[in-house]
Model the fold of this input.
Amino acid sequence: MHATSSTPGGEPWYTHRWPWFLMLGPVTVIVGGVFVTSLALRHPDALVVDDYYKQGQAINQDLRRERAAAALGLSLQARYDARAGTLAGRIVGKTEPFTIYLAHPTLPQRDLRVFVRPAADGSFTVALPGLERTHWQVVVEGALRDWRLAKGWDGVRELDIAADKP
Done:
């Protein structure tokens, strides 16, 4: 008998369905692994801090600034108007310029920093067109970074931040 003779069930392996079915699982895993690896390389995680010691020192400095805000009796109330694309409100305790920093929860490139010059009564209006509805971390600080107010905000409800009593 020759190796080229055709006998029942002697077809080449690739004409049968079972080898292909058995190879489907490993091929799917390999394709999925390549896809997930490409996602990880294209979108690195920006939430990891390189220098933990400096981060710890910054936390202590922030606590001092929050205590300074409490000693000044500072508070801020603001409301976002989506139609007009403005954030309007009032700061109590200071009428000097200050900064509002809106930190996006996951994408640092979407963070916003707004410099505010309030009126004599503390009222202000700043342009924030197309503010995304997400859970923002809001930090309000003096122009000299000598005081600080911070709170989470959803971008919909009224923002009300008050310094803790000293």
